[in-house]
Specification:
The complex is a heterodimer of chains A (about 400) and B (about 280). Chain A is an alpha/beta fold. In chain A, about 60% of the residues lie in helices and about 10% in strands. In chain B, helix 4 packs across helix 5 (about 135-145). The chains are: A alpha/beta (about 400), B alpha/beta (about 280).
Chain lengths: ~400, ~280
């Protein structure tokens, strides 16, 4: 392997892509799509839809209430300008709120429930955050607790004034951000102050007793964000290795430039090595960028990079096999598309009919599983087995492609 | 250093049941400009494909500069340059970028690119994308590419096709210079004038076999037909073989009769020689 030849071949590939910008344009479109999905919620739609795409966290907060009370009006008026696009108020009857409420990905909720107990009203604030992300509602909670505490204090002051008490003696403790104990204590202190300051002759404290609870949203039937992110990562690898590589390779063959390179001192191994280096690198870089937009932490895990390399190697083997067997650029395009369709159909048929074994022979069975686990950071022991299988299949494809290319690829 | 640059011994190439080259024996000397002629499908291009290692022989042996083309292909590749009949450039690159890429593969300095562009008179268009080149410019760029590493053997398939007279002259000059420098040049062409003008020796192949091998002059002398074409007053056209006694007598009678509008002898050209030789081969 001569480095100056390898370098020349790699630089040639770069120059070809700079001259034919279709591939670069599509790669950029993928990045733009990922960023757009991060900004706009793919699931909810509508003009008032907030965020909720590939970036984690809560991009839309729904405040749900049963009655349009003064508290709700106060809360609505106090939403800070920077949170206003993300916060939506929604009236929901008490019966509905106890049923199954489904929120789109990237959406959290604060439910205000009221009832009475032993003649005293009770108000419960339930904070619903995405599963496994209890801190995701922090920006909304920081606003909500302060606003709710202020509203309650205003309410208490009016009550005190009406009862002949002195509202100026009410202190205003800081609800201490998202610490639920501190918030709960702040409401408790307010309740105690009102009890103390009210003249003994007046009626019972009309302020509601406050309860707080923070819960994770359940029903993880489909995490659209991670599914889209995984799909984009798989597509990036497929695009570079199974689409770009065969079509450009066959274009070189059709034009005769592949033969010209083969007749130069560059050996078939060097020509092959340059292609084996360039296209997977391109695919991995694009896939990593897309995965990084979804979950930057994934880039720091070994499993993620192993999964990317295994899948890129496998797709490269498939791409080179298509490139070697196809005689024309059109045949290469059709070959890669037909391959994808065939494998998808086989996997679907096997899945629908419970046919065992066969799916394990497809890289496309293991690949999305390991990449999804890698991208979401949810790697279980069986994912390592999938990775092992993907690696073995990739090695098989690479060997087949190398053997075929050396036999007839450059002709 | 062997005197024979290219040695072809009993070469046979078959595509399935079709035999393209059938027992070709040929020796091409070092420093020779050799023309390989033949009608379409005669086996010229297949022979060239075997010489450059693109096609494996079905039978026989071929060696270039002492190296077997099958066994020592990697060793032969840097020694030859090849101008294919169909241009094969990176269309999206400029002419200069195309040459620079191949110069890097041959590990020759970048200055050589400029020299080659100048040699084929493509300096002004060097920084234009190849997709904007005319057919002639593309062929000249092919030649420049083949000359980058100053090969000892040069194979050219129709090197002057689509070239204007001046550009063809430039190509002829370059080829003669390469031969003068000791290189061996093998070209295929359909231009008989070109063959007569620049080739030292000519091999005529037909149906995969060598039917004639000599210098253009010797072949013409040995094989050209001597004919006389007569047009009578009535418009009837007659042809007489001047080498046949009966035809000569008939011609004399026709001329004496005074019914002739014109009598012309055919030019002794290589074109006729080629037609005669290949025509015989088809019989």
């Amino acid at each position: 392997m001569r480095l100056y030849i390898l370098r020349a071949l790699l630089v040639k590939e770069v120059h070809r892509h700079l001259a034919n910008r279709g591939g670069i344009a599509l790669a950029l479109l993928l990045i733009v799509a990922a960023v757009m999905l991060s900004m706009f919620n793919p699931g909810s739609g509508g003009a008032d839809a907030g965020g909720g795409g590939l970036v984690g966290g809560v991009h839309r907060c729904v405040v749900q209430y049963a009655d349009e009370s003064p508290l709700v009006r106060e809360l609505r008026a106090s939403v800070p300008a920077d949170l206003r696009p993300q916060v939506a108020f929604e009236r929901m009857p008490p019966g509905e709120v106890d049923g199954l409420v489904t929120y789109p990905p990237g959406t959290g909720a604060i439910q205000i429930r009221t009832w009475s107990e032993a003649g005293r009203p009770v108000m419960k604030f339930e904070v619903w955050h995405p599963p496994g992300e209890p801190g995701a509602m922090a920006p909304y909670e920081a606003w909500f607790w302060r606003a709710a505490r202020d509203a309650m204090q205003t309410w208490a002051a009016e009550d005190l004034r009406a009862a002949g008490g002195d509202p100026a003696r009410l202190t205003t403790p800081d609800p201490a951000g998202g610490d639920l104990w501190a918030v709960r204590d702040s409401f408790r202190q307010l309740d105690e102050q009102v009890g103390r300051l009210r003249p003994a002759t007046t009626t019972a404290n009309p302020l509601p007793r406050i309860e707080l609870e923070r819960k994770g949203l359940g029903a993880k039937e489909l995490d659209l964000r991670s599914a889209i992110a995984t799909g984009m990562v798989v597509f990036a690898l497929y695009f570079a290795c199974v689409y770009l590589l065969p079509t450009l390779n066959c274009e070189e063959r059709e034009r005769g430039v592949l033969l010209a390179q083969a007749l130069s001192p560059a050996s078939p191994t060097e020509i092959l090595a340059a292609k084996f280096l360039f296209y997977p690198t391109l695919g991995i870089a694009l896939a990593a960028a897309l995965a990084g937009i979804y979950n930057p932490a994934a880039l720091s895990t070994l499993f993620f990079w192993m999964a990317l390399v295994a899948m890129a190697a496998g797709f490269l083997g498939i791409g080179m096999t298509v490139a070697t067997l196809a005689k024309t650029q059109r045949a290469a395009f059709m070959g890669s598309m037909c391959y994808l369709m065939s494998v998808s159909l086989i996997l679907l048929i096997c899945s629908q009919n419970g046919i065992p074994g066969v799916p394990y022979l497809a890289l496309e069975f293991h690949g999305p599983r390991v990449l999804h686990a890698a991208v979401t950071g949810d790697v279980q022991s069986h994912h390592w087995l999938h990775l092992l299988a993907a690696g073995a299949l990739a090695a098989g494809w690479m060997a087949a492609a190398g053997w075929l290319f050396r036999r007839r690829g450059w002709q | 250093m062997p005197e024979t640059a290219i040695h072809i011994d009993g070469l046979r190439v078959a595509y399935g049941s079709f035999v393209a080259v059938n027992g070709l024996d040929l020796n091409i000397r070092r420093g020779e400009l050799f023309g390989l002629l033949g009608p379409n499908g005669a086996g010229k291009s297949t022979t060239i494909r075997v010489l450059i290692g693109q096609r494996r022989p079905t039978a026989g042996r071929v060696s270039v500069l002492g190296h077997d083309v099958v066994r020592d292909w990697a060793a032969i590749k840097p020694l030859f340059g090849y101008v294919p009949d169909r241009e094969n450039h990176f269309e999206e690159f400029t002419g200069r970028r195309n040459l620079e890429f191949f110069a890097q593969l041959y590990n020759v300095p970048r200055l050589r690119v400029r020299d080659c562009l100048r040699l084929v008179e493509l300096e002004e268009a060097a920084d234009v994308q190849v997709r904007g080149y005319s057919l002639g410019m593309r062929r000249k760029l092919l030649l420049a590419r083949a000359l980058l590493h100053e090969p000892q053997v040069l194979y050219l398939d129709e090197p002057t096709a689509n070239l204007d007279i001046r550009s063809a002259e430039v190509v002829h000059r370059i080829l003669r210079e390469r031969v003068a420098a000791g290189a061996t040049v093998v070209l295929t062409t359909h231009d008989m004038d070109e063959v007569e003008k620049i080739c030292d020796r000519v091999g005529i192949v037909c149906k995969g076999k060598l039917v004639a091998l000599d210098s253009p002059l010797a072949l013409r002398t040995a094989h050209t037909e001597r004919m006389a074409d007569v047009i009578l007053d009535s418009g009837e056209r007659l042809a007489f073989d001047l080498d046949a006694d009966t035809d000569r007598q008939k011609l004399a009678e026709v001329v004496r009769s005074g019914r002739t509008a014109s009598v012309k002898t055919r030019e002794f050209d290589f074109h006729a020689t080629f037609l005669k030789l290949t025509g015989q081969a088809f019989e």
